[in-house]
Amino acid sequence: MDYFVIRSKTKAEELCKEIMRKSLPFKVAIQEVFPIRSIASNDYYWGIVITPIADITGQSPDEVHEAYKRKFNFKQELRYNKRTRKMEWYIGTASTTGLDEREIWDYIMKVRADAELELHIIIMMPNETFIKELNFDHDRIETKKV
Is the pLDDT assigned to residue 135 strictly greater than 80? Predict the structure, then answer.
């Protein structure tokens, strides 16, 4: 079995040529590779998302995190138990530590939406800023008089 990690158009073209040389039928599996969870996304999650929710609910940030893990990171899957040599159901919450960058942002968006719907908390995205009133002075282009 051949495995490829494609990081450029040249490698993608090489893979296409390799596929054309194979005799039919054969299997192909494509899996996207995403970067691991960044420190910036982790800081945003704990500092900007979880902390205001904890402040309003009166719970600790860890309690809020555990509650959202149960709500949005609940897993059930079959796992092989080496001791009993049988497949067994695992039901519970999974850690958010293993989530990649795309998965953690999906999770964060679920938490933000839930906070807005259930607690009426508006949590800003990292690229948003709060402006009290509509003031467009910051968008005005300065022109110099000659």
Answer: no
H-state helical runs in 1-146? 9-21, 39-43, 51-57, 61-72, 101-114
pLDDT tens per residue, range 26-67 = 888 887 778 888 899 999 999 999 999 999 999 999 999 999
> Residue 13: inside a domain, yes or no?
no
Task: Give the span between the Cα atoms of 93 and 73, in whole angstroms.
Answer: 6
Count of structural domains within the chain: 1
Tell me which residue range forms the domain holding 101. 34-119
User: Which pLDDT band, with edges at 50, 70 and 90, does 142 fall under?
Assistant: low
Q: What is the DSSP string of 41-78?
A: HHHIIIIIIIHHHHHHHT--HHHHHHHHHHHHSEEEEE
On the 0-12 / 13-18 / 19+ scale of CB atoms within 10 A, 59 is: middle
